[in-house]
Design the sequence.
């Protein structure tokens, strides 16, 4: 893909459909699946507080809201994965069909990019 000892970087390699996909971090994997049910339960507790009821009144609503919120979070995660895959496929197709707009980029090391640096010392 992009890493390695290649002399040039090809922009299409970033969006190639067969390229290996790095595993998502733990927070990204479970964020919506945890926060949405907690938020739903918190919203029910807040509603009870604002209407001056005991906080856990109508506990059956929690037993319904938490699994429903978890299911919504799962569907949302799947939707976002499919949406991003579709976007990447469109970008990849555009790069492949318009190669003159995306020439290979020559790899440059940091030591070749950085200018000489001399600290100014005031006495």
Sequence:
């Amino acid at each position: 893909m992009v890493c390695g000892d290649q002399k040039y970087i090809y922009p299409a390699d970033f969006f190639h459909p067969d390229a290996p996909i790095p595993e998502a971090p733990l927070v990204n994997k479970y964020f919506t699946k945890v926060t949405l049910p907690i938020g739903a339960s918190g919203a029910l507790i807040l509603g009870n507080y604002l209407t001056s009821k005991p906080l856990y009144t109508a506990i059956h609503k929690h037993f319904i809201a938490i699994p429903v919120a978890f299911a919504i979070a799962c569907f949302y995660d799947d939707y976002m994965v499919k949406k991003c895959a579709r976007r990447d496929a469109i970008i990849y197709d555009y790069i492949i069909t318009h190669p003159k707009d995306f020439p290979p980029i020559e790899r440059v090391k940091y030591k070749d990019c950085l200018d000489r640096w001399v600290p100014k010392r005031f006495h």
In short: The chain has one domain: 26-113. The longest helix spans residues 59-97. The chain has a mean pLDDT of 89.
